[in-house]
Design a protein that fits this description.
With 344 residues, this protein is α/β, with parallel strands linked by helices. The chain folds into two domains: 243 residues, NAD(P)-binding Rossmann-like Domain (Rossmann fold); 68 residues, Alpha-Beta Complex (UDP-galactose 4-epimerase, domain 1), CATH 3.90.25. It is 36% helix and 19% strand. The protein is built from ten helices and 15 strands. The strands form four sheets. It has a seven-stranded parallel sheet, sandwiched between helices. A four-stranded mixed sheet has the order 8-15-14-13. Strands 7-10 form a two-stranded parallel ribbon. Helix 1 packs across helix 7 and helix 6 runs parallel beside helix 8. It is globular and about 70 Å long.
């Protein structure tokens, strides 16, 4: 019997992973935090699937995690050969982490420790394979280009620092207790299910609002930041492949190419007939449509981070050679997918 537990199952990654595993005939348990507003939009279409079980919980609540693991153990009893746990829960917005650093540390750092301790005390840790969602933000002020599993870390935000603790505590539990625990150092991955406050989704939703006449502008921060952007559908397969391998290890998942925020804007707007050109400098730079002269893209320094990460470029050679993973969806296809979804 194939069984998986996904924390943060109602997030971008969690929803795609749940679909992926259900299609492979897993019984999928998903943890979501209780909210006073509906927060299950991304999983609405699988909510009533016979093999999908939703539990309320939080990675900062160790007793809750222990109880859920106990419930899984007693539900399947002797049929439980292996349980795959994917920890995708996090306070995942880098800029916001500067405003709520303590909460970020509790969720993204200490929460991982609590989950590992729940596994260790479960009584069947030898049947559990654990995936920790790590991040390219670990590299921050990059020490070499491109970044691979051996590149020194230099996080530049409370989010990155909390994830650094999570990375090392996962590695420590693997080496100290023999637990099957992997870190997936995933570079930026996007989709139509990306949160509205992330820059890629802000661009495609902003484009739609301009097309609908609801606004006359899109306001952004650092246009020159470059990211290694892939599609989430590719990356959740990489998570799964890590837990299918014979031994636990840490892997970078990336497309091995990067693009600027400026380029994302240009490609997205071009799909709807705008030919964006630029004038001015710094925070006074403006993007305008060459065809009509309309000024559409503006800069506001409030969207800049206190300490900026200018460029991230991954090297996923190890994942390709060891677990057979490589991305299939191109940058252009990613942009098109998001524009089609948001600008219908």
């Amino acid at each position: 019997m194939k069984i998986a537990l996904i924390t943060g199952v109602n997030g971008q990654d969690g929803s795609y992973l749940a679909e992926f595993l259900l299609n492979k005939n897993y019984k999928v348990w998903g943890i979501i935090r209780r909210s006073s507003v509906i927060n299950t939009d991304r999983i609405e279409h699988i909510f009533n699937h016979d093999n999908f079980i939703i539990k309320y919980g939080d990675v900062t609540d160790g007793s809750n995690l222990i109880q859920i693991l106990y419930e899984i153990k007693t539900t399947y009893k002797n049929d439980l050969d292996r349980l795959e746990i994917y920890n995708l829960a996090a306070m995942s917005h880098v800029k916001v982490s500067f405003e709520i650093p303590e909460y970020t540390a509790e969720t993204d750092g200490v929460g991982v420790l609590k989950l590992l301790e729940a596994i260790r005390s479960s009584g069947y840790e030898d049947k559990i394979r654990f995936y920790q969602a790590s991040t390219s933000e670990l590299y921050g002020l990059v020490q070499e280009v491109p970044q691979n599993e051996n590149t020194p870390f230099y996080p530049r935000s409370p989010y990155g620092v909390a994830k650094l603790y999570a990375f090392w505590i996962t590695k420590n539990y693997r080496e100290s207790y023999g637990m099957f625990a992997c870190n997936g150092i995933l570079f930026n991955h996007e989709s139509p299910r990306r949160g509205h406050t992330f820059v890629t989704r802000k661009i495609t939703r902003g484009l739609n609002m301009i097309l609908q006449g609801k606004t006359d502008r899109l306001t952004l921060g650092n246009l020159n930041a470059r990211r290694d952007w892939g599609h989430t559908k590719d990356y959740i397969q990489g998570m799964w492949l890590m837990l299918q391998h014979d031994t636990a290890d840490d892997y970078v998942l990336s497309t091995n190419e990067y693009h600027s925020v400026r380029e994302f804007v240009e490609k997205a707007f071009k799909l709807k007939g705008f030919n964006i050109k630029w004038k001015g400098n710094g925070i006074n730079e403006i993007g305008y449509d060459e065809n009509t002269g309309r000024e559409l893209i503006f800069i506001d320094e409030k969207y800049f981070r206190p300490s900026e990460v200018e460029e991230l470029l991954g090297d996923s050679t190890k994942a390709k050679n060891t677990i057979g993973w490589q991305p299939k969806i191109s940058f252009d296809e990613l942009v098109n997918d998001m524009v089609v979804a948001d600008c219908n």
